[in-house]
Design a protein that fits this description.
The complex is a heterotrimer of chains A (about 260), B (about 325) and C (about 700).
Chain A (H helix, E strand, L loop, with lengths): L10 H10 L4 H7 L3 H11 L2 H14 L19 E8 L2 E8 L4 H8 L18 E4 L2 E4 L12 E3 L12 H9 L8 H16 L21 H7 L10 H13 L8 E2 L1
Parallel strand pairs in A: 1-5
Antiparallel strand pairs in A: 1-2, 3-4, 3-5
Helix pairs in contact in A: 6-9
Chain B lengths: L4 E4 L3 H10 L3 E4 L5 H6 L7 E4 L8 E3 L9 E4 L4 H6 L1 H6 L1 H8 L4 H6 L2 H5 L6 H4 L41 H7 L3 E5 L5 E5 H4 L18 E7 L8 E7 L7 E12 L2 E10 L6 E2 L1 H7 L6 H12 L10 H18 L5
Parallel strand pairs in B: 1-3, 2-3
Antiparallel strand pairs in B: 4-5, 5-8, 6-7, 6-8, 9-10, 10-11, 11-12
Helix pairs in contact in B: 5-9, 11-12, 12-13
Chain C lengths: L16 H5 L15 E7 L5 E7 L1 H5 L3 E6 L22 E2 L5 E7 L2 H9 L2 E6 L6 H4 L14 E3 L2 H7 L2 E9 L11 E7 L2 E6 L4 H11 L7 E4 L15 H13 L3 E4 L2 H4 L9 E9 L5 E13 L10 H5 L6 E10 L12 H19 L3 H7 L17 H12 L12 E2 L2 E13 L5 E10 L2 E7 L9 H13 L6 E4 L16 H24 L9 H7 L4 E8 L11 E13 L5 E11 L6 H20 L28 E8 L23 H13 L10 H4 L1
Parallel strand pairs in C: 1-12, 10-11, 14-15, 19-20, 23-24
Antiparallel strand pairs in C: 1-5, 2-4, 2-6, 3-5, 7-15, 8-13, 9-10, 9-12, 13-14, 16-17, 17-22, 18-19, 18-21, 22-23
Helix pairs in contact in C: 10-17, 13-14, 16-17
The chains are: A alpha+beta (about 260), B alpha+beta (about 325), C alpha+beta (about 700).
The complex binds flavin-adenine dinucleotide (FAD), iron/sulfur cluster (SF4) and FE2/S2 (inorganic) cluster (2 copies).
The site of iron/sulfur cluster (SF4) has 15 residues of chain B, from helix 8.
GO molecular function (chain B): FAD binding; oxidoreductase activity
InterPro entries (chain B): CO_DH_flav_C (IPR005107), CO_DH_flav_C_dom_sf (IPR036683), Diverse_Substr_Oxidored (IPR051312), FAD-bd_PCMH (IPR016166), FAD-bd_PCMH-like_sf (IPR036318), FAD-bd_PCMH_sub1 (IPR016167), FAD-bd_PCMH_sub2 (IPR016169), Mopterin_DH_FAD-bd (IPR002346)
Keywords (chain B): FAD, Flavoprotein
Chain lengths: ~260, ~325, ~700
Amino acid sequence: MDEHESPELTEDEKQLFADLMPEDLTEIMDKGVNRRHFLKLMTLAGGGILAAQSAVAEQVLTRSSSETLPTELVPDSLENAVTVACKVNGKARTFTIDSRMTLLDTLRERLDLTGSKKGCDHGQCGACTVIVNGSRVLSCLTLAASCAGKTVQTIEGLAQGNRLHPMQEAFLKHDGFQCGFCTPGQICSAVALLDEAKKGHASYVTGNLRPPVGPVKLSNEEIRERMSGNICRCGAYPNIVAAIQEVHSGQSVEQVFRSV
Amino acid sequence: MRPFTYTRATDATSAIKLLAENPHAKFLAGGTNLLDLMKEDVERPTALIDISDLDLNDIKPITAGVNQGGISLGGLGKNTDAANHPLVRQHYPLLSQAILAGASGQIRNMATNGGNLLQRTRCPYFYEVAMPCNKREPGTGCGARDGINRMHAIFGWSEHCVAVYPSDLAVALTALDAGVIVRSANGQQRRIPIADFYRLPGDEPEKDTNLPHGELITAIELPKNRFANQSYYLKVRDRASYAFALVSVAAALETEGNTIKQARIAMGGVAHKPWRALKAEQMLVGKEATEANFKLAADAEMADAKPLTHNAFKVELGNRSIVLALRMAVNGGKA
Amino acid sequence: MKEVTKVTGTPINRIDGIAKVTGKAPYSMDHPVKNPAYAILFKSTVAAGKIQAIDMTAAEKAPGVIAIITHQNAPKLNVKGGLRGGALLQSPEIEFFGQHIGIVVAETFEQARYASRLIQVTYDKKEPKVDFEKLAGQARLPKDKEKADARRGDVQTALRQATYKVEEVYETPIEHHHPMEPHATIAEWNGDHVTLYNSAQIVNGAQTATAATLNLKPEQVRIVSPYIGGGFGSKGGQWANLALAAVAAKHVNRPVKLALTRQQMVNSVGMRQHNRQKISLAATADGKLTALAHETTTHCAINDEFVEPCGDCSKVMYDTPNSLITYRVVPMNLILPTYTRGPGKSTGSFALESAMDELAYKLKMDPIAFRIKNEPDRDPSNGKPWSSRATVQCLQEGAKAFGWENRKSEPRQNQQGNYWIGYGVAAGTYPAHQRPTSALVKLKRTGDHVAATVELAAADLGTGTYTILTQTAADALGLPIQNVKVNIGDSSLPPAAGAVGSVGAASYANAVNDACVKLTQELVVKSGKQFFVRPTAAQLMRSEKITDYQTRVDSKPPESAEAYSAHSFNANFAEVAVHQSTGMIRVNRFLAVTGAGTILNPKTARSQIIGGNVWGIGMALTEESVVDPRWGNFVTRSLADYHVPTHLDIGHLDAIFINEKDEHVNTLGVKGIGEVGIVAVAAAVANAVFNATGKRIRELPITPDKVL
Ligand SMILES: Cc1cc2nc3c(=O)[nH]c(=O)nc-3n(C[C@H](O)[C@H](O)[C@H](O)COP(=O)(O)OP(=O)(O)OC[C@H]3O[C@@H](n4cnc5c(N)ncnc54)[C@H](O)[C@@H]3O)c2cc1C
Ligand code: SF4
Ligand code: FES
Ligand code: FES
């Protein structure tokens, strides 16, 4: 790529740079993207082989969305039916459900969004984490009925078209998962956590809570405490922390593969 | 989960009315405790009144009355917002810490201040409907009394129930002498001191609190104090995070020189309610803030403990935790 | 033709990673089916006895209920079909608390769950056998021949004569696998064929066992399991819920979704049993072992036996003239125990390696030196030479990398603030096997573009199977990885070994490699040409203008491997901080050094080891399932009561692999890493706790109350 080849960035691209390389954003906006920016972006986003892999992975391994979307198929026997209108991943959705139905079951069974997972159904694992009105919550302990008028973002809504969210890229690069079942919850939780840090939220390991509140730079220990509501039985914790730290700090976190 | 009607309340008055009319109705706030228990078939409301939209989430200074100079937390404010509000962090860091010691980021984003106060015990026999439990079904017996009771009470239990109360937030509120503001169906608002809000099990373990059915928690009031630079919330648990307390201690001191003017100590994980360690507090007032005095205070408090089959360790752990929490309070959070 | 650089052995990202980070990877319950009904199981609330009556009146009338199935109307199934744990609704007998006794099927999940609460059951109760403390004395010799007493030399005499000895009992509690994905099935019939979307570590095993149980031919049952949300042994053998989903779907003539709740998991899909292990060690003053006895007492199901091989490490780890390995087992009214990560080796190594640490301390020897002193030059249990063994290297390299020289040899010498700091070491092993596996490789050429599809009924439960097979096939065929597609997790593909017992990588990768080699050879023959430099299959497809070609192999381990004893070996190093007032323990640093032969992908391999370490740390510090001895129910029936480690429980973890070329174990020299990562972890932690505090904890987990 030539120096300052493309001064015009789309909104998506700006967002990507803003998320991944905030420290370079002003320069990019003024002078455009240069080779150094590009290389840095590639490192942050997981590197060359990624592009090649995405192609295979996309077509081979993902779930085919069913043609028979059950969304509007309402069993006649529904009791205490509630009609809910809300926004899911940017789209307006309206559905009629049993008042007992959780947001998690609604996403999975009615809206064909099976990315959010049911690990425990009791608020004890975090696999069902989604982002409602900008904050991370557990969809298994949320009644769908209570979501009327709210915006819901799930793992399916994080990527922009074919471009992964920086957090998804970082999880890939750092192998922040094994079986992958806790992953949608981990990623949604991590994405919202970065926002909480920007707002200056504290945690139990923060120490002195009294100084004025402002954006905080999270240590690995802070990330661990703040992510503790997301259990990973495969034990991908160190890799998840590395992925989050990379996106949070905007600095590439080294991967070490040691052998002697 | 039993079938229930779902109503979204738009104002407090009608919400309270709806609740008061139906003995089997429940308020739904964050839902993190209620839905959990409904899925287990422990709670069986026939109607849910969703109060989460009510405009009761402000955190603001109290400008008049006995608690002037203190602050008020909306009953429907989220735990996260309470913990992170500049007023709370600056003047009541003990409360922030206690909230942040509880549950997980996601749950604190959902959980409300009022709902947190009314969460029910985590006793595993209470949660399993196939087991006897006087709290869930009065008269069936207490599964834990002669069962597995490592997590259970060492203070104030009765033969009818040996459960502990799980909230961290309420332990800090107890140390801070908070008041719970409730509104009833006739529109009356009253203030229940936190010490009177909770109760011991006695022979009515089915009652966790003294809040009658049909009343809404609208706010929590924190009186002004001088504890902000000498307080600490210590939570000891079986894993590092996302676990209920084996023992927790909220400690706050006001000193002049090294002399203790006021001491507040409350414990979690040891009784059916947040346990105010009055004996320990009394021992400390007027004394020097030294390790030896902390130990004497802890000994005084724990002397009354009555452990069950599997939880004798809580007596020693409680003792050490009081000492440690006091030390950390004095040292600004450092050991 | 441009050269394609080799990718095997490089840390490429997971092939299935994109699907996983976007939420598009389909686990059991994520497959789309038309018009499903929802099933929920209900359970017995006594641990022993017989169902007297089931009152379903209210449940049958509940809205949305389509059917209720109990032993009274369930079809006749073959209880010896190979599913584990019974509970197939074939009789009113109750063998454990939480046994499935019926299924409710309804239009929605909410309706099924509600109706299941309305069912009233009465029982003829019997006194349950669930109190291990009381029953351990009645334990008897297991039926399993592998668990017969194994005696070499005379342990008793050696012990009697020794000045330096340790004779202690080590306890490990019941543990549950708790994979994040609860066991769940979607069953869909098509005539007399049924498709079961169901996570399976052993795809073909799930197929044959379910078919036999349902009285069908294997080809009538198809298991679809492209993604597995963790298994750790609990999705190796399959359980009643799989067949019952099929039964329910048949009964209501509709696809049925049946998921276990997290609470049901504790009584439905196996567990690791409570092991009471007595270790007796004797040594000379200069640290040469003279006796090693490992005697395990445990429990199994009331009508079925499973015993963890706790003595396995003790058989092969150290050189000793006198050795004794025994097992005793007592049946109890609890769910059948089963393979759990590092079966026998994780628990057995806790006992053995704790005892080794105790004896080293008595001998005033460095625990690493003590272990090296007793290093066997061949397998002491059968006299075979090692295919490769890296224990000494693991210990020495680990010591260097970890800073072992900073360890204080006496406990309670290292204080930092409010914490005691301690270092611990432990060594372990897990056997390496390659199992028969078939693989089909298909090549297709369009112009110059050659693409491969690799098919076998293998499983990837986060182990990296997709990725390593893509790498293996790409290199063996001369293709870039994006031209290779791997299809696994479907019983209609060529049969493969299970992803259990660390046999997955070795079995699958060797089979795929064999298939690619065979295919290339066939293309060479087909070309009728002679080559100086052997061309790749991709090159041959182009040069010979072949558009489609495929071949299949049924791969087996090399016979020569029989002559060797093949194991992965490791050494683990832990640094713990123990809070002086509260007893809370944190593993600050952990290092695992592993010799596992060829590492196909350092990224996924490191993750596997770290994952095993996290499991081991959980075993050491937090995990325990507790039974109420009066009723036989688990009081730790949720993830709030059963503590698996969280993010904050895990400090800095590091993994080092020994560059090891094992020429005997199999063609690719792969020994397997899935299990060895958990072996000797708990012991390293417990030994570090001793070094920190001077307290020797012989009963896991090491919760704060035990170190106060
Ligand atoms: C896995 C897990 C771990 C947890 N760990 C901890 C922990 O470590 N420490 C801790 O303190 N807590 C912990 N919690 C509990 C959590 O903090 C509570 O569930 C939460 O605070 C309850 O608040 P809520 O708004 O969700 O209440 P809800 O579940 O909505 O309501 C609880 C009860 O209060 C009633 N109610 C709610 N609001 C009002 C009101 N304004 N007036 C009158 N009645 C009302 C409801 O009718 C209901 O009976 C944990 C929870 C889970 C699921
Ligand atoms: S301790 Fe209380 S809550 Fe627990 S079983 Fe006994 S009565 Fe029920
Ligand atoms: S499924 Fe919601 S927290 Fe586990
Ligand atoms: S990746 Fe398997 S549970 Fe986290």
